[in-house]
Amino acid sequence: MLDPRVKPEDDVRYLRQVLIILSCLLFSIIATLPAHAQFEAKPTPIWEGVEKTEADKENDDKFIKQVLALTKGDELAAAQGVVQLGWEQIGQGKPNEAIRRFNQAWLINPNLPDIFWGFGVATHVRGDETDEVVRWFEEAFKGLRENPRFLADRGRVLEERKLPKRARFWFRAALDIDPDYVPAHVGMSRIANALGDAELEKTHLDRLKVLAPDLIKSDEETEKTE
Q1: Percent helix, strand and coil across the chain, each to the nearest 5
Q2: pLDDT tens for each residue of 86-95
């Protein structure tokens, strides 16, 4: 699964720091995990309800120092790098491991909204209740309300949960910010089809023929061969 936050024009510094984190911490991170996070069968976002021991807190501090040493004290870059590890785990179908990574990122920078976005997707993939999933998306929304990628991803999650009308709201919100955002048009076309709105579906498919003609062509060719 590709990280839905990343776009090609992301600045070079961010990408370089992510590569540093990924290469240097993939193995060392596991060794410094707090005991409660390492053995918890179903980890809880931000360790809610978990009472940390003094040893846990010491391990937390050790982990933070280790990561910040690699990024020369740059908390944002460190947290982003660990968040990226979380997205990698989601892509491998390991939502519990992803939550562990997002928890670690939260230790470094608890105000990074991407962490809560990650919690939303991970709890969705894990099959948690919709209210719990939405709760994390709501937290992320506080800092990502102008991010069409986040808004469309929230729509995608609600669509996968068979909530088309709620999904439609978020796809539209994404398009309000970026009228040419392809994933939101794709989502709207699917939602329109699910709701039986042929006119709305055609509107978005026509727009996709302009924005992503290869995508539409691929779908049409698939239908011909079925």
Answers
A1: 75, 0, 25
A2: 999 999 999 9
